[in-house]
Amino acid sequence: MMRTAQRIGVAVMLSLAATAIATAQDALKPADVEKFMGTWALNLDSPQGSFAMNFALTEKESKLTGELTSEMGPPQEVTDITKSGEDLVLKYAANFQGNAFDAKITLTPSGDKAVNLVFDINNGQFMMNGTGTKK
Question: What is the pLDDT of residues 54-65, one digit of tens each?
């Protein structure tokens, strides 16, 4: 009897995990992230001082695509764009001065044309906070 209950529990957990994975893989549509569409001025605070970037979220060939630009390097395309609750989550891999890194930027709405943001490099090794305004 106990083993049957355990098997049912494992089956339910695997089913929920498969559903979560399938849902995460569904592509976002512009209507899903309407308040984030357009160009944003992002300002980050770091131990080295303030850092400015621009982020543009557009639709390209029926898919969402993002582009980050700054004076620090070439434009960075972002195609891994998801939502977590009301937050928009951007993930990409990049290279700065020969050093590869993974980045995640989380944009949290803070009014109609404002966001708070967290810039996470290499899964928490270096983090910056900031704000953004829609242009």
Answer: 999 999 888 899
Cα 31 versus chain centre, distance? 17
Fold of 30-134: Lipocalin (2.40.128)
pLDDT in tens, 7-49: 343 333 333 333 333 334 467 888 899 999 999 999 999 888 9
CA distance 96 to 112: 33
Domain ranges in the chain? 30-134
Long-range contact pairs involving 43-51 (C-beta distance under 8 Å, separation at least 24): 43/130, 43/131, 43/132, 44/117, 44/119, 44/128, 44/129, 44/130, 45/128, 45/129, 45/130, 46/128, 51/128, 51/130
Q: Enter the DSSP assignment of 71.
A: T
pTM for the model stands at 0.78
Q: In what helix (H) or strand (E) does residue 5 lie, and over which residues does it extend?
A: helix 2-25
